[in-house]
Amino acid sequence: MNKTIGIFGGGQLGRMMAQAALPLNIQCSFFEAETECPAAILGPVFSSKTEQGLQDFIASADVFSLEFENTPVADVDVLTQTKTLHPPRLALATAQNRLAEKSLFDELNIPVAPYRAVDSLDSLKQAVADLGLPIVLKTVTGGYDGKGQFVLRSEDQIDTAWAELGPAKSLIAESFVKFSREVSIIAVRGQDGDVKTWALAENHHHNGILSHSIVPAPNSTDLQPVAQDYITRLLNHLNYVGVLTLELFVTEQGLYANEMACRVHNSGHWSIEGAICSQFENHIRAVAGLPLGSTDVVRPTVMINIIGQHPKSEDVLALQGAHLHLYNKSERTGRKLGHITLMPNNSDDLTGLCRQLAQILPVPLALTADMSL
Amino acid sequence: MNKTIGIFGGGQLGRMMAQAALPLNIQCSFFEAETECPAAILGPVFSSKTEQGLQDFIASADVFSLEFENTPVADVDVLTQTKTLHPPRLALATAQNRLAEKSLFDELNIPVAPYRAVDSLDSLKQAVADLGLPIVLKTVTGGYDGKGQFVLRSEDQIDTAWAELGPAKSLIAESFVKFSREVSIIAVRGQDGDVKTWALAENHHHNGILSHSIVPAPNSTDLQPVAQDYITRLLNHLNYVGVLTLELFVTEQGLYANEMACRVHNSGHWSIEGAICSQFENHIRAVAGLPLGSTDVVRPTVMINIIGQHPKSEDVLALQGAHLHLYNKSERTGRKLGHITLMPNNSDDLTGLCRQLAQILPVPLALTADMSL
Fold first, then answer.
1. β-pairing, A45-47 with B26-32?
2. Which of A326, A340, A356 to mutate to test the interface with B (most CBs of B within 10 A)?
């Protein structure tokens, strides 16, 4: 093996990172509560539940990265006494704190919806007065896939919202941005400062969880350079190494940043087949100090999540050009179990394929809408 | 996991099969002399050197395949008492015996160079009289990458050739086919009889070992349907399941079959990036009883072997669009250590990339010739 990369987390993102690392003779190890995790087949898993786990994990690899966005900064601080983490601690800490994150966006002139810090019922009332309604109230730390959020639509919800989220102490109130769609931009920065960006993904959600992404996002020619500019500012400011994701809202006033993720992202899974070099391979290349690969699109691609229940593999693979990626996870409501990549030849094919897929998937997603490329 | 596939052999072909199996939640196990083999990172390896190894291997999986073309038929016979092997025993036994193989080609009207069975000095002399010179004398069983062969160019070499290869007892003398180039066709047959064929590869050798393959083979539009027809005859006749490779010579009289390999093939490694569905994934799909994926070419591709010594990974990955596949093998003269896939945009790019690559590779291959797509 050339080098070993230790990864905080051992879920499907770590699994796909390790899959991309293997042909480069790079072995991965993982730090995860449960040693029976999706990444386990590809390398040793050190349990975060055992006393010696972190030290053993730190000893297991040459250089480190993460796939778990809530990787404790305290663990990172132990690690960085002796080893290097990519991405940098500052990026991780910023992304884990919605106020720090918005503040960074402000600093770099990346538009965000107006927001206020909220730490009391009074400050919540003030935020409602300042921002108007509706607003989204979120915990400053924690929460994902729609959890830890409250959408406030009328003033009589203020007490309920505070009762639900107030115990978290530190909240953020954000203006409800009127957006036509959500897109994400994913980019990678190498150790030499080289930045490469994938095409914008248009993301569709179902019950707060990503349902599917279309790449390149339709009608995004004008948006792509703007999004690239925003994420490049972030990467360079943070002296970032590895893959960074920026979720954006498309509004009549242009792109608004929603949040960033210091890792490979569900909306980038399409790149395994759809790009010359995937987000997983380029992340590994960056962390290992290797040159980055081309992020060019090979062919327009749709990535569909498998959520809660598995379809029959034979049904999925019978679809023209379909690729199936399963994560070796047991079924549970709302759980991401795998994804499907479709690379249709044209828009008509896509609509047909998505209709077929909607029939196959046991959990109906947001696939019934007409799709276009 | 959906299913477990046991693979005879644990080299790079098994490694790449298991890599393709992983996203389908299919786990592989391996049967190999050395447990420290390229596939070891992806599944348990049962040693063929231990007494219990074969039985443990048979117990380890639901269905079986192979990546080692010299898999002993005796082992297969033990296996098939309780489990199923894809491809079928008959295909393996035929490919392991050059006389049986040529006889099958004859039976299916697939052109081969004139040949004679040779089992004595007298029959060798008779073969020379019948076929003329030059001829290639080969052992009927064993031998690969140019080993176990003798090219006879004049009658005074007959005694030397016999002294060298005669002890093998069973030989075949083949007319020296005057060919302009060598190509290979790879196809896969599913359990339902569905056959899919990849584009012809044009293969270039260096010291008897495959140096690089260009896909689609240049100027092969007329050859493709003929080659497809030949390999489809073989697949259907043998009731084959899995990937089969047929090596062919391009002559003024058309295509001549050289030999077949009952497995994924080095000249198909391009398909990992260059085809919608790779030879490895389709082989796994076939063995697991799943529908086959499209074998369409995504973009013209060149696959270059890394032989004997490793180049620097950073040098290879700095080439535009290059993909690196290392097999985790130690360096040794003539050993296949990995391969590189290039997907140039056009012929000019290819020539430039190959020149750059020739400078990077420590062992010079047949890359100096002008390349075209």
1. unpaired
2. A326
- Does residue B269 sit at the A interface (CB-CB below 8 Å)? no
A3-85: which CATH number, 3.30.300.30, 3.40.50.20, 3.30.1330.60, 3.30.470.20?
3.40.50.20
User: Which residue from A41, A277, A314 is facing B290, i.e. has the nearest CB?
Assistant: A314
CA distance B271 to B267: 9
The answer to whether domain A179-360 has CATH 3.30.565.10 is no
Predicted confidence pLDDT, tens digits, chain A (373 residues): 568 999 999 999 999 999 999 999 999 999 999 999 999 999 999 999 999 999 999 999 999 999 999 999 999 999 999 999 999 999 999 999 999 999 999 999 999 999 999 999 999 999 999 999 999 999 998 865 556 789 999 999 999 999 999 888 899 999 988 899 999 999 999 999 999 999 999 999 988 889 999 999 999 999 999 999 999 999 999 999 999 999 999 999 999 999 999 999 999 999 999 999 999 999 999 999 999 999 999 989 999 999 999 999 999 999 988 999 999 999 999 999 999 999 877 767 777 888 888 888 887 666 655 555 5
In angstroms, the separation between the Cα of residue B183 and the nearest Cα of chain A is: 26
Instruction: Count Cα neighbours of B73 within 13 Å in the Cβ-side half-sphere.
Output: 13
A120: closest CA among A157, A161, A154, A170?
A170
**What's the CA gap between A84 and A6, in Å, rounded?**
10
